[in-house]
Structure formats: structure tokens, C-alpha cells
Amino acid sequence: VYWTEVGEAQILGPELIQETIEKIVQIKQGMQAARDRQKSYADLKHKPMEFQVRDKVMIKVSPWKGVVRFGKRGELNPRYVGPFKVLERIGYVAYKLDIPEKLHNTLHVSNLKKCHADEPLAVSLDGLHLD
Fold this sequence. Notes:
Layout: E1 2-3, E2 9-10, H1 13-45, E3 56-60, E4 67-69, E5 80-90, E6 94-97, E7 106-108, E8 112-114, E9 128-130
Antiparallel strand pairs: 1-2, 3-5, 3-8, 4-9, 5-6, 6-7
């Protein structure tokens, strides 16, 4: 049933279906345009993370559950430890690092950050306790 004016009802089977299909196509095109626009904004801020063998990197420890970082809690905790040397690249997004045996030595690139600081200023793994 299709309402054109108040009080009138018309049954327009194929026309109604065609109009609905056209509206769906318009909606899909609008959603695709919004997705493309958002992707272009995100790509402007995205920096590809790549490290070379023998580069020094820091390991992110803030998202780890069950980790007490240096006996402190709160926002003043160190978020990265290191630096550690990159031993090898594994695939496109993982790296093998020269870290102590108690930790897994292959990490995703999202958990790494290039080390630009001097080594004496860096935070070591000594104060990190795993539960």
C-alpha cells in the first residue's frame, strides 16, 4: 500500500519495489562515501611503523594485565621499558627482540616504539613483575 495523499491509498507493487531499490542504492553510496572520507582522514595520521635490524626499540607495558609496573599504580607509571635491540623482522607486523628469557621475544609492531633517548635514561625490566 502506498499513500500519495491523505485519505488515498494506491497499490503500486513494481513501482514501490523499484523506488525502494533506488533508495537502498543511494544509502549504500552515501555510506561508502562516508567510509572513504573517514579512511582518508585516518590515513593522514597513520605512520607506518618499520624498524631495521639492530634498531633500538621500547616495549609498551601499559596494556598488560597482571603486571605490576615498578611497584606503582596510577598515571605516573612508565608506559614503555627498554631499549631493546631488534634481532629480526617476522612477517610484516612482528619483530623478534633481544629481551630476557622470561618474556616472549616476538612482539607486534603496535607494542613497540623507536627509542630516541640515551640508554642511561631508559627504564629497564628489573622492576617489572609478572603475576
